[in-house]
Every structure is written in structure tokens, then in C-alpha cells.
Write a structure and sequence with these properties.
Elements lengths: L2 H24 L5 H13 L13 H24 L4 H7 L3 H12 L6 H24 L2 H24 L4 H10 L2 H11 L2 H9 L3 H28 L2 H4 L6 H12 L6 H18 L34
Length: 314
């Protein structure tokens, strides 16, 4: 990997890690479901008019949009609003790699190797340690919501594998159009029209900046740059950089939000990152139906586009 490409991969990981701190700041300005809806609205417009027509069937765009956009991000934003720390959220969400492997084994017939199983067990031990830490110092319900978000993310990863989008950025922009109305409807039902209107009327530069960051910088730039790297390098080369996300997430939360990192949380981080590394960087055994492998590659889209003709499928 060229130095410039390496720097770009680290930059994307940093953007995705800092994104959790920006979300925490944005939740001071918006109810969580409204904030999530505005994030996807800003990510979809005007990009949807620039990326061309969808390149996969609408059923895949709709299913990934609902599972990833509504379930995963809805739970993340609500969980963080309920008290889940930004840094810990960036860490706990990495358990999506385990959910992805388990669901892929059940749905796609991908049999995990012994090393992958070991990685899952190590990562689950990290979640257990993080749960003990959060249960002692914060709301356990919010922690469970973020774990639920990771499970939804794992399901969306498998759906994305089935969709096999040839253009990752095009796919993500069109997926971003799906959650807007469901999230707005849920916000009106649960958060109330008066709270939503008050947030919109009180919109200031900081609130607008958080929307633009999570939509354009984290989603459009981050996802586009990650897809660009994956088209030029094997997933096994690019994927390890996603393990830097919780490092930047926890560091930025400590720096800008004053979040403390307890010894238990450091222990959870070491177990989770190590377990996810074993889970995502070890190839799975193939079942009878041979499919292009898609590995966990990043917080916005955990799916590898179909391999170029000159690259062997691992």
C-alpha cells in the first residue's frame, strides 16, 4: 500500500472514530431518532442525484436501509442518548463482526475456522467485561441497545453480501434514502412533534455542523474513500485499519467529552479488538455454494465489492 493510501485509510478510521463524539454532541441538539433521520436525509441529498441509478435490485436497497439505517443506527442513537458513552459505543459496536460471522454461517453456509471461533469467544469475553464495567457505572439498558445495534449491523452485512453491489458509494447513497421517512415517523410517535419542532427551530451552527459531519464527512467521504481503497487493495490489507476506529473513538471522547477510560474498559478494548481481528482477518471455510467473500471492513459498510478480475477470491 502506498504511503498516501495508508494515510487515507488511517484518516477514514479517525473520521469514523471521531464520529461517535460528534454524535454525542449532536444529541444535545436533537432527539435521537430525529437526528438519525436528518443524518440520512443530508447523506442522500443531493448525492442521490449525482451517483446515478441504483445498480442493485430495490429489495436489497430497502432491506439494508431498514436494517442498517432504522434498526442499527436508531438503536445506536437512542442508546447513546440514554447514557451509553461515545467511546464505549465505538468499541462495543465492533462485536458486529461476531454477529456477521454467526449469521453468515447460518444463512450463507460459511463455516468458521477454529481460529475464527476462538476470535468470537475472545470478543464475547470483551463484551462481558465491558458490560460489567458499564453495569457498575452506567445504564445497562443503553449498553444492551448498542449490542442490539451491532446485531442489526451483522444482519445488514449479510444482506449486503447477498446484494453484492458493484458500486459501494452508489449503494450507500441509495440505502440512505430508505431510513428517512421511517425514522421521522418513529420520532413523531415516540419523541413527539413538539420536541422535534423545538429542535428544528433552535437549530444553530453547532447542530448543523454535527449533521453535516455525520452525513457528508463520515458517510459520504468515509464510505467513498473506503470503497476506493477496497477497489485498489485486497480486503485483507484494508480491513485491519477498521480496528483503529475504537482507538480514535475512545481517545476523542476522552479528549473532547472528558470520558474516563477505566482499567476494565481498557481490558475490554484489548479483548474486543483482538477477538475481532481474529474473526475478521481469518478466511472462512467455504460451503458448497461458492460466493465471493465479503469481510468486515468499516463502520458504515461492512461488505467487500466483487473482486476485480485480476484479484483472486480468497
Amino acid at each position: 500500500m502506498r504511503p498516501s493510501h495508508l494515510c487515507l485509510a488511517v484518516l477514514v478510521a479517525a473520521v469514523w472514530g471521531v464520529n461517535f463524539t460528534v454524535i454525542e454532541i449532536g444529541l444535545d441538539h436533537f432527539p435521537p431518532l430525529l437526528f438519525s433521520a436528518l443524518r440520512f436525509l443530508a447523506a442522500a441529498l443531493p448525492a442521490v442525484f449525482l451517483v446515478g441509478r441504483p445498480k442493485v435490485a430495490w429489495k436489497w436497497i430497502a432491506s439494508v436501509g431498514l436494517v442498517l439505517g432504522v434498526a442499527k443506527f436508531g438503536l445506536v442513537f437512542v442508546g447513546m442518548d440514554a447514557g451509553m458513552p461515545a467511546g464505549l459505543s465505538s468499541l462495543v459496536l465492533q462485536i458486529q463482526a461476531v454477529f456477521t460471522a454467526v449469521i453468515a454461517a447460518a444463512v450463507l453456509g460459511e463455516r468458521p475456522t477454529r481460529v475464527r471461533v476462538l476470535g468470537m469467544l475472545v470478543a464475547l469475553a470483551g463484551i462481558g467485561v465491558a458490560a460489567v464495567d458499564e453495569g457498575a457505572s452506567g445504564p445497562l439498558g443503553a449498553f444492551v441497545m448498542v449490542v442490539g445495534a451491532a446485531a442489526a449491523w451483522g444482519l445488514s452485512n449479510v444482506l449486503t453480501r447477498k446484494a453484492s453491489p458493484p458500486d459501494a458509494l452508489n449503494f450507500m447513497v441509495w440505502v440512505s434514502t430508505v431510513p428517512v421517512l421511517p425514522l421521522l415517523a418513529l420520532s413523531l410517535l415516540t419523541e413527539g412533534p413538539s420536541e422535534d419542532l423545538a429542535a428544528l427551530r433552535g437549530l444553530d451552527w453547532q447542530g448543523a455542523g454535527t449533521i453535516l459531519f455525520v452525513a457528508w464527512v463520515s458517510t459520504v467521504f468515509g464510505f467513498g474513500a473506503w470503497g476506493w481503497l477496497l477497489r485498489r487493495h485486497p480486503a485483507s490489507t484494508v480491513a485491519p485499519f477498521s480496528l483503529l476506529v475504537p482507538v480514535f473513538g475512545m481517545s476523542s471522547a476522552a479528549l473532547f467529552l472528558g470520558e474516563s477510560v477505566t482499567p476494565l474498559r481498557w481490558c475490554a478494548a484489548a479483548l474486543l479488538v483482538g477477538g475481532v481481528a481474529l474473526t475478521t482477518l481469518t478466511p472462512a471455510r467455504r460451503g458448497r455454494a461458492r460466493m465471493p467473500e465479503v469481510r468486515a471492513t468499516g463502520p458504515e459498510f461492512v461488505g467487500r465489492p466483487p473482486a476485480p478480475a485480476e484479484e483472486s477470491v480468497r
